[in-house]
Amino acid sequence: MAQAAAVAKPPAPPRRRRASATPRRLPYLLIAPAALLMLGFIAYPVISVFYYSLQNYNPTKPWRNGYAGFDNFVHAFTEDPVFWDTLTFSAKWVFVEVGLQLMFGLALALIVNQTFVGRSLGRALVFSPWAVSGVLTSAIWVLLYNSQTGITRYLADVGIGSYGTSWLSDTSTVFSAAIVADLWRGVPFFAILILADLQSVSKDLYEAAEVDGASKIKQFWHITLPHLKDAIILSTLLRAVWEFNNVDLLYTLTGGGPAGETTTLPLYIANTSVDAHNFGYASALTTVAFVILLFCSMVYLRLSKFGGGDK
Amino acid sequence: MITKEATAVAPAVQRTVPEPPRPTGKRRAWDEAPRWQIYLPLSIYLVFTLIPFYWILLFALRPAGSTSLVPWPVTFDHFEKVWTDRSFGVYFENSLYVGVATLVMTTLVALAGGYALARFDFKVKQGFMLALLCSQFVPGALLLVPLFEIFAELQMINSLVSVIIAETVFQLPLSIILISNFIKNVPYSLEEAAWVDGCNRFTAFRIVVLPLLRPGLIAVGSFAFVHSWNHFLFALMFLNNQDKQTIPVGLNTLMSADSVDLGALAAGGIIAAVPVVLVFAFIQKWLITGFSAGAVKG
């Protein structure tokens, strides 16, 4: 859902109104509920995460609580191999997921943007996993990947693979298995957003290109892609942030296993705070995650020259 | 969102396209890919999309222990079991309550905020916009502990209110941005005309602007509903009593049992899917137009 903002534009220049038309306090009253909610339940928790990151804070070991300086950060970077493993896995997960989702989503959007018989039914069907939650996606794929009654059993029936194969508990297959499950749900996101943006490409452009003898592929490169550029940049960015942060699917599908093979950094953080009650360390890891996200986003926006050709 | 290339090429169009329209068949040629280029990839993708849905239906409808690939004879035992024995009936009610409350709260708060951003120029406006954008980067999952402490302080742990507030808050930034874009697309002069006719600001908004915002409100509201219906971590963390749990937590409980009852899990999954599928079927038409009108044109 984050992608919706993907295509949101900066606000239009504010309109100047005469004072009589604009009661001075009205705008403040109107944003007050949203501002208060966000201050209390986003800003304050964020600040307390920063605060706890400098503390030893573990409710089960109160005798050790207190100011820790940068100990938590030093520990993460120098003494905690799990931190590096989960960070590497997060990067791999985000990169592969977003890349594949964009590729398939773009292809799908271009296909269902054509005129053909059964288009609206086709659209509804290919978009349908969009609404399915991470937990439900897990439930579905747990059934599909089940070693006894899952898809491998029927594949073995026709001679492909062997009985009793469990893709989720084998370290060599679990990554692809999880990637496919998340793709199933993630591709429609991109497809919907790109399709929405395709609606606003002027058809005249294609007609003109056709008249000038441009091939379909040339039309795609010179008309469609430039038009979609900003939407693609923003949606991939927000999707990447979302894929990085979201833990629903992996938490329920693999639980980060087998043997920590599919633990992302946020999943590790959740385990550290919820199961191990090590809030101070979890907060430090959260802070690191924030900084990484922010840094990568800035670099990405800068490198992709976001908003470049758009006035 | 017309790019520079687009505007640069546009004048050329007028010159090159001959005045009298070409025969229809020819004129639409740019639009027509060979049929197989559409149907073949689409069918392959549809198989990938639909097999998982079929799989869960199969497990939900065939008797336990059956390995048939067709759910026949159909049984509803799994649904009965999961609805009563595994308390999905209660979960369903809780999820519905959370979903509807989140929808109403998000829409109302976002309407107010979005209207302020679209129609007024005020001191903290830029700061507020920046806060909305930045909050996109704040993952709810990483704020679980401080949020838990806040709700514990407010004595809201084990109350559905905590989940409703948390879901609303994380839904707000995007909703406000979307709604303010929708409102900007409604000419201010329409409202001003209504003032001249004697309406006050609120009445003018209600009778002139609100009806035009329908696609936007449907998009924002259904997002809020679907998102809170699907979301899992807040309910898992803030609700301890079994009779307060929501559907995703129930599904997770079924999945993490030592020996997973696959039939019950499948039936529970179908129960979880029904409301969102209905919402999706209802909004699908507005979803595309909602995005292109509200977000793209900005």
Explain this structure.
The complex is a heterodimer of chains A (311) and B (298). Chain A has 311 residues and is an all-alpha fold. Chain A has one domain: MetI-like (MetI-like fold, Orthogonal Bundle). In chain A, 67% of the residues lie in helices and 1% in strands. Mean pLDDT of chain A is 81; it is low at 1-9 and 16-20. Chain B has 298 residues and is mainly alpha-helical. Chain B has a domain at 88-251 and 273-296: MetI-like fold (Orthogonal Bundle), CATH 1.10.3720.10. Chain B has helices spanning 4-16, 24-27, 35-61, 77-85, 88-119, 125-134, 144-153, 160-184, 188-196, 201-212, 214-230, 233-238, 247-256, 262-296. In chain B, helix 3 packs antiparallel against helix 14, helix 8 (160-184) packs antiparallel against helix 11 and helix 13 (247-256) packs across helix 14. Chain B is globular, with a radius of gyration of 25 Å. The model of chain B is unreliable at 1-30 and 294-298 (pLDDT under 50). The interface between A and B is large, with 129 and 126 residues.
CATH architecture of the domain at 88-251 and 273-296 in chain B: Orthogonal Bundle
Count the helices of chain A. How many?
13
Largest beta-sheet details of chain B: none
CATH class of the domain at 88-251 and 273-296 in chain B: Mainly Alpha
Largest beta-sheet details of chain A: 2 strands, antiparallel
**Inertia-based shape of chain B:** globular
Q: Which H/E pattern describes the elements of chain B? A: HHHHHHHHHHHHHH
Radius of gyration of chain A over all CA atoms, rounded: 24 Å
Known CATH architecture of chain A:
Orthogonal Bundle
Question: Approximately what portion of the residues of chain A adopt beta-strand conformation?
Answer: under 5%
The CATH superfamily of the domain at 88-251 and 273-296 in chain B turns out to be MetI-like
Can you tell me the CATH superfamily of chain A?
MetI-like
Largest sheet of chain A, order of strands side by side?
1-2
Briefly note the structural class of the backbone of chain A.
Answer: mainly alpha
Q: From N to C, what is the helix and strand string of chain A?
A: HHEEHHHHHHHHHHH
What is the helix tally of chain B?
Answer: 14
Average of pLDDT of chain B:
80
Domain ABC transmembrane type-1 (chain B): 92-283
Transmembrane segments (chain B): 36-61, 96-118, 130-148, 160-183, 204-229, 262-283
Pfam families (chain B): BPD_transp_1
Membrane topology (chain B): Multi-pass membrane protein
